[in-house]
């Protein structure tokens, strides 16, 4: 069995991934900014909880050192911590862009700096980056979030080429719409308040988008299961789209020109604004 460090475990994919790895007998270090926030993790004393803020170098380095001391090694790193900033690209502020990228992109890099040298010393390891289907398609009003997840795709590919020949496997999981707290904890651009034309258009798009999952996002456990499989099964592919909507979008975009994809998705969503 392996020792697993997971970021962003207070809820959603991270919390479920921690529980899933533990259920399979792995030693789990579940990290979050404020340990103790998850009742599910609190009920599992065998899961170690550590404070870790991916936006702080000191926090990352301290938590990784403590995780290695506690578990003896880090065999699997799951980069799950993330936030979502909604807003038309021309309306988001510098601070909002910085907040989005510092967590979703620079956070992944900080974790890699702290963990990869340890894995290289051991000559083995696996890194699973939690991306999104947004990393393959730039949806309206999710441009900044999508840009951050496009960056995760690029980082994953580069790390694969840099590390695979030295025994470290790197993967990206690309969920579509799932029932997690990410949406509830998201923020939208301050320059796009409720009642404005752009806000109302965004809401109409979100309603159309939900038709891809018949209005009911799939259970997030499916993503946790794919994260576990990507980390533990060999051989394993680089990319793992998860969810019927993600698979539809990926397959459709790959099969046609962007112009045809644009027309097809507008028809599928019945969104012609």
Describe the structure.
By secondary structure, the protein is α/β, with parallel strands linked by helices. Helix 1 (12-23) packs across helix 7, helix 3 runs parallel beside helix 4 and helix 4 runs parallel beside helix 5. The protein contains nine helices and eleven strands. The chain has a single domain (3-192, 217-251), classed as NAD(P)-binding Rossmann-like Domain (Rossmann fold), CATH 3.40.50. The model has no long low-confidence stretch (mean pLDDT 94).
Fill in the keyword field for this structure.
single chain, 273 residues, alpha/beta, Rossmann fold, seven-stranded parallel β-sheet, two-stranded parallel sheet, 11 strands
Short structural description:
This protein has 273 residues and is of the alpha/beta class. It is built from nine helices and eleven strands. Helix 1 crosses helix 7 (221-232), helix 3 packs parallel to helix 4 and helix 4 packs parallel to helix 5 (143-163).
